[in-house]
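Risk register update: the risk of archive-format incompatibility is retired. Evidence:
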Amino acid sequence: MTLETDLVCLKSLPLFQGMPAPRLKLVALMGERLHFEPGETIISESDGSEGVFVILSGDVEFSRQRGSELLRFQKESGSIIGDVSLLSGHRFLGDVKAKSPVSALRIPKDLFFELLHTVPEFGLAVCRDLAGRLYRLVSTVLHEEEAFS
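Archived output:
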């Protein structure tokens, strides 16, 4: 893809919609464009937090083995993955694999933190994304508890 195509793609994602054009161009230039085939590992539980992945197209699946049970959930285009481990300083809690052909932009850790510090719109978008995921998680947990009461 060309730089222009990458910029159009990034602008369409909620995470980057409020970002000033020069910073968006920096993300497109400094981010590493990666492609994954279905079943290919994007992040492994043993990986360190060296950056985040923005899923530009395709679907990914998070999974973790817990005893005899395989826990998993999916995320789609526009999702950011790896941010929780990076921000918390903890290792990743499972594996992330491509469910379909995936195009992703890997944003290195230094650039991610620079954007958080220098682009308030980006920091707010990341906070909103995290808050939305936390809300959905709590809602799911509470509804599961109601089902077993």
